[in-house]
Amino acid sequence: PGFVSVEELNVADTKVSGTLPHNLANLPKLNKLRLRESRLSGTLPAFVRNTSNFLNARNVEEIDLDHTSMSGTLPSLTALATSLNKISASHSSISGTIPPAYGQLAQLERVELEHLVNLSGTIPPELGQARRIFDLELETTALSGTVPHQLGRLYFLRDLELHNMRLSGTLNSELFADMRRLRDFTIAKNFISGSLPGTMAIPPFRTCDLTEWPTPTNVVLCPLPADIHDTHPCARGLTCTAPPSLPPPGSPPLSPPQPPRLPPAPPPPTSPPVPPSTPL
């Protein structure tokens, strides 16, 4: 009875271990769940995975599972969570996909899901409906597909971290037309392709990384303008790839087969040196 007034569970940066009690769902005023950098483990209880099970779903403001061993799928976060402004599960054991219902969360500002190697699927286009998002971090995950053009509706977006994923397709400059507050953008270590006129129309952010690594990955078609590395931050470290042209059927190999390399011949034998004659 003495805990009915608890509004925040904060064990961040502590050595608290074990699993999360299921009866936390019975706390009518609980609105912040801060578990980051703790030693909690186990599967997320149902009341976290489905906020409709919260007695106070409309008051939940923050769920932070960063750097824990918590497993299970991401919270579904139904539209009942009208106050939720942050969902973070980076560097945890969370898996599954990003629920499209996140786009219904009108107060959502921060989505931090980086370094989740078992997070798969695609980036939900519905995220573009959560107009208040200013921090979207999805790097180092198994997310694939293209970058949804609907993200261009995130007018308040400041940080867009998409590097080290499995994204493909082209990078349309129209995506960034209304992202006037965007300052940090990374999409390196993907499989993005396209030509420079579209890519270089991206606004000059404070930091921008489109670099090519490893191979094959982001490909920008040649030629590059001579001064491009000096005039646009997105082009720093950027290389280009000439589009391949396939020979007609039945054509001989572009390069004739080379004879096998033989080991070098041993040096000719040398006569032993003749000792100098001794005087009589």
From TrEMBL:
Superkingdom, natural source: Eukaryota
Keyword annotations of the record: Signal
Annotated region (Disordered), positions in chain: 241-280
InterPro entries assigned: LRR_dom_sf (IPR032675)
Bias kind Pro residues: ranges: 244-280
Name the record gives this protein: Uncharacterized protein
The species this protein was found in: Coccolithus braarudii
